[in-house]
Amino acid sequence: MNFNRMLTMARKEVIQLRRDPRSLALGFLIPPLLILFFGYAITFDVENIELAVWDADQTQTSRRLVDAFVASGYFRVDRLTRYPAATNALQTGDALAILAIPRGFAGDLAAGRPAPLQLLVDGSDANTATIAIEYARGITSAFSRRATLNGREIRPAVVPASRVWYNPSLESRNMVVPGLVAVILSILAALLTALTIAREWERGTMEQLVSTPVTRLEIVTGKLLPYLAIGLFDVLLAVGIGTALFGVPFRGNLGLLVAMTFVFLLAALGFGMFLSAALKSQVLATQFAMVATYLPALLLSGFIYAIANMPRALQLATYLFPARYYVTITTAIFLKGVGIDVLWRQGLALVALAAAAIAATVAVFRKEVA
Amino acid sequence: MSAPASSGRDTDVAPDSATAIHVRGLTRTFGDVTAVDDLSFGVREGELFGLVGPDGAGKTTTLRILAGVLAPTGGDATVFGVSVARDPEAMKPRIAYMPQRFGLYADLTVRENLDFYGDLHGLPRGAERESRVERLYRFSNLDPFASRLAGKLSGGMKQKLALSCALIHRPQLLLLDEPTFGVDPISRLDLWIILQEMLTEGITILLTTSYLDEAERCDRVALLDRGRIVALDAPRALQADLDGRAFEIRASSPRAALRVLRECQGVSRAAAFGDSVHVTLNQPAESLPASLRQALDAAGAGVESIATLRPSLEDVFMERTGG
Description:
The structure holds 2 protein chains of 2 kinds.
Chain A: H1 3-18, H2 21-41, E1 49-55, H3 60-72, E2 75-80, H4 83-92, E3 97-101, H5 105-110, E4 118-121, H6 126-149, H7 172-194, H8 196-203, H9 205-209, H10 216-244, H11 254-279, H12 282-299, H13 312-318, H14 322-336, H15 340-364
Parallel strand pairs in A: 1-2, 1-3
Antiparallel strand pairs in A: 3-4
Helix pairs in contact in A: 1-10, 2-7, 2-10, 3-6, 7-10, 7-11, 7-12, 7-14, 8-11, 10-11, 11-12, 11-14, 11-15, 14-15
Chain B: E1 19-30, E2 33-44, E3 48-52, H1 59-66, E4 74-79, E5 82-83, E6 95-98, H2 110-120, H3 127-140, H4 155-167, E7 173-177, H5 185-200, E8 204-209, H6 212-215, E9 220-225, E10 228-233, H7 235-240, E11 246-251, H8 254-261, E12 267-273, E13 276-281, H9 290-298, E14 303-308, H10 313-321
Parallel strand pairs in B: 3-8, 3-9, 6-7, 7-8
Antiparallel strand pairs in B: 1-2, 1-4, 4-5, 9-10, 11-13, 11-14, 12-13
Helix pairs in contact in B: 2-4, 3-4, 4-5
């Protein structure tokens, strides 16, 4: 391995990058744009649930109950006068849930009898439905306590003291932004390098290049270096956008994040370069990179769906994707502020993936035409 | 004189210290196609050696194997004593290879391309580099275009830049694949001036060409046809072999002349050549034998003139391949 030859390759790559608007945009413009866009768009918080209310009781008490739903902030209430209109709203999607208050609701309550209510929920989106039911249960139980006790106090037998750590306000954005950095970089890194080696084969420059003493490892590492720098820049920019614009806390060590990002990028960029060397076609390599990183980064990284809930086979598959470790790393460093003592396992896994990607690239890359 | 079509393991040049390239039984197949078939020849140090033949003759494949960018499927070749089959990397610092397709970076400038290849070969930046670049600029007249992108150069200038990049690290062997293909006559002349200059410095040059006038400039040529050598010698010697055997016949009916000549005894080959017929005899003769003349007249060819022909390499090639 000749260090100067590696730097020569890197310098050439930088010159070409500078003159290639497409790669420049992909490297410098798209990541911050995506972070901005998705930072605002993606939220896992359930708010503004459309609730159709059919109030057959039409009493002060029933109206107070409906007001409690409005006051919670979780529901947007639409009062309907006929029951069929309410079920229709559920069908068309205009409402996610229907609250039906039967005639005699206030009377039952006043008489100390159980006062039934009906909540119909659209369960097509199970997560949102569950959360909506929980909200409704909380509101109705608070309402019934006030109604039955009339200000008297009772002491519950069990008092759970819940405290939420790391993200006390439970804002999903605090988790989304650090995770997004990982997801976006996973996709982008492979796309950037998927072009590099294939381009030289397609343009005919590789034939001349491989007739020189430059080694395969020098070509591969030299080509990686500039993209490594771009990736690091993107992450630092994302930290800036996340903290300054979205108010996401950054509690960890920036140096640790940079070090972890370095090995993560080697693995992700190395994978793209492997595709480029193996397929020798820019179109093919880009398509493969897209398929092999986009969905796994989104679905198998733990960013959207908890890995613990996946079938065993899928869980095992997640270990192959750098995104899985990096999502854990970014959220942990941003929100928990933990150090290498906690993240060393993820770090080691990324080192192994990076080494495997580079070794595989060198192995499939032949200094030979045809 | 010349190597027979299938010469086995023997080559005309003994592998000694003065041999730059020594090829023995070199073979390369691509699936069912044999691109290079049991090739054997040698190139002496300081020699200008030409591989000549039509498209598909195996010229490019041979050159790629010798440049260490393609592995042979059979046989071997040594370049400066190093086997290209076993250790294709070892001789790369000493050689330069110029592929037929423009192999430089179109999005790098002239100077950036030169520096890239200079850096790859470890040529120190500074006075030595500058004087080297200066000299290559003088040869190629590329100085005014130093900061122009290579992709924006004309075809001739591209080839001159490619040759300059090949020469930046002072290689001892130049492997050039059709270096003047698609190049304008002026640039072609420039390229040849550079090559002649390199030869006076003792650099060995192996090139492929399909231009016969260029082949005639070579010290020796190997005529290739379908992966095999059909003749190998100095161009003059190959032509001398046909001296006194080739005639040009102008006739009012070239087709009739051709038909009858092909059936005559003592005729090695007859071929239409424009509106005349070229005929090659088995034996040298002062003039066209009377028996042939009679046959032509009998067939009503309407002979207008008969002249002896100064044989070209093309005639040699046609004669050897029976084309």
